Amino acid sequence: MNWSDRWDTSMMKNYGRPPLLLVQGKGSRVWDDSGNEYIDLIAGIAVNALGHGHPAFVQAITDQLNTIGHTSNLYATEPGLLLAERLLELSQAPIGSRVFFCNSGAEANEAAFKLSRLTGRTHVVVAAGGFHGRTMGSLALTAQPAKQDPFRPLPGEVTVVPFGDTAALSSAVTPDTAAVFLEPIQGEGGVIVAPTGYLASARADCDKYGALLIVDEVQTGIGRTGQWFAYQSHNVVPDVVTLAKGLGGGLPIGALVAFGEAAELFTPGSHGSTFGGNPISARAALTVLDVIEKEGLLGHVQEVSKRLASELPAASNGFVSSVRGEGLLLAAVLEGLSSSDVELKLRSHGLLTNAVAPNAIRLAPPLNLPTADVDEVIQRWGRAFQELGT
Ligand SMILES: *Cc1c(COP(=O)(O)O)cnc(C)c1O
């Protein structure tokens, strides 16, 4: 029996049957079990920030495993401590800010949701089309009815407002509001960028009633948009930032950075995680941050982004009207083609992408996608769209 039939037999049915069995990765490239090579433009869903098998990354986690691999939160370890300090520094958090580590994006938002309850309030405001995770708590914040409806009742008192509508958000925040959860760019929702001034307006709404502004940077954080954190280009200071995906560069880790007074809400016994901040994942994350800095990847992300945004539409045979997003979280907006057909065609030309919306293809390549590979991406893309036109 081939692997895909075996997959169908042994795996739960929550995912569609995957199109490929990937057996190897190096840099921006991956190979399937038939030896076909692909440029990985989705990077494990915006996770593999340094691509596959970056030597410094492999060395760091190997060293760490040879030193001390797991202790649980009963003991302190150096990588976890260093990572917390580094995240506070990079997020320019005020004195008194603090970090909590977990293992995933859903867990980071779950922790933020619990933290918000400790304000003594229970009402939460979220944006339609947002994505904050799949656990019961984070799912309650994920305003996508198809994902939520089979699992009701979910934790309550969540008001949903249209994303990007400042007036709607202002009227939803009240003296009972514990928190507003927002993504700077809705990633799973189709790579929809918050309009200029939206986060600042949300900040003002939260300040008016003492609600927490919780910015979900699980997908946008850690250099993805060409800034350390996407909120940094919005001229706001959040109360809480949630992180995961790219932070560990492929090892599971999530984090909550709580700014100022919000950092005091968790008290002994409030919350915990056995694996959270374990030395291997923390060392992996420290290495991601070091390499982004040493290799100048924030600037590189901005340059590659500009090229893709300008050159992909031109190479699309008239089928791409625009490219939206920031940094290396981009979506090519299709005209007259379905994204699933395009994803398939691109794959047959050696490009892994993701049909994030019926009319949009998401690109979230490694942050260190080499310049030579950008040329190759544009050529392969052009050939795929030529074929789509015939
Ligand atoms: C992916 C994602 C999550 C959930 O992360 P998991 O690690 O899959 O639980 C939460 N928020 C945002 C913005 C995401 O993109």
Task: Provide structural commentary.
The chain is an alpha/beta fold and 390 residues long. It folds into two domains: 3-52 and 295-388, Aspartate Aminotransferase, domain 1 (Alpha-Beta Complex), CATH 3.90.1150.10; 58-294, Type I PLP-dependent aspartate aminotransferase-like (Major domain) (Aspartate Aminotransferase, domain 2, 3-Layer(aba) Sandwich). It is built from 13 helices and 17 strands. It has helices at residues 3-10, 43-46, 55-67, 78-90, 105-117, 136-141, 145-148, 166-172, 198-209, 279-294, 297-314, 339-348, 371-388; strands at 22-26, 29-32, 37-40, 98-102, 123-127, 158-161, 177-182, 185-186, 192-193, 212-216, 240-243, 254-258, 320-326, 329-334, 351-352, 354-357, 360-363. The strands form four sheets. The protein has a seven-stranded mixed beta sheet, sandwiched between helices. A four-stranded mixed beta sheet has the order 1-2-3-15. Strands 13-14-17-16 form a four-stranded antiparallel beta sheet, with helices on one face. The longest helix is centred in the last third of the chain and has 18 residues, at 297-314. The model has no long low-confidence stretch (mean pLDDT 97). Bound molecules: pyridoxal-5'-phosphate. The site of pyridoxal-5'-phosphate has 15 residues, from helix 5.
